[in-house]
């Protein structure tokens, strides 16, 4: 049930990727606390470490993982009506970037291997006391959450 809810949220947030807003970002540019950033980075790092055991992964090493601030991207998410319905605020969204080296068994999975592959993650949480959950990730920001 919970997984279905997050799948629906992911689908919704994929639809957010439409244009950029010309309005000021104001409070949306405000930073998360360092503890919140560290917790989000920890979730992404654990996710990547767990992917080492995925079907078709021959090897995976993490080069770097860090929290980023992208006020325009955050503002685009927050301006969507669905974000308001979900109760998302700037304190409930974290953006994390990662670079990995990965080798896949391409006879088993269609993914391409690569060195220093970029992956951008969007994490959400219900409130400041809830854990961060990966909502979306991919290699390109444009057109995505």
Question: What does this molecule look like?
Answer:
This protein has a 4-stranded antiparallel beta sheet with strand order 1-2-3-4. The protein has helices at 2-14, 34-51, 71-79, 81-86, and strands spanning 57-68, 93-104, 114-124, 133-138. The longest helix is centred in the N-terminal third of the chain and has 18 residues, at 34-51. By secondary structure, it is an alpha+beta fold.
Gross morphology: elongated
Averaged pLDDT: 79
Instruction: Summarize the helix and strand pattern as letters.
Output: HHEHHEEE
Q: What is the spatial order of strands in the main beta sheet? A: 1-2-3-4
As residue ranges, the low-confidence spans are 1-29, 140-145
Helicity, as a percent range: 25-40%
Task: Name the structural class.
Answer: alpha+beta
Distance between the termini: 23 Å
Query: How many independent structural domains?
Result: 1
Strand tally, please? 4
Blueprint (SSEs and pairs):
Elements: H1 2-14, H2 34-51, E1 57-68, H3 71-79, H4 81-86, E2 93-104, E3 114-124, E4 133-138
Antiparallel strand pairs: 1-2, 2-3, 3-4
In brief:
This protein is of the alpha+beta class. The protein contains 4 helices and 4 strands, in the order ααβααβββ.
Considering the chains and any ligands shown, give keywords for the structure:
single chain, 145 residues, alpha+beta, four-stranded antiparallel sheet, 4 helices, 4 strands, elongated, disordered N terminus, disordered C terminus
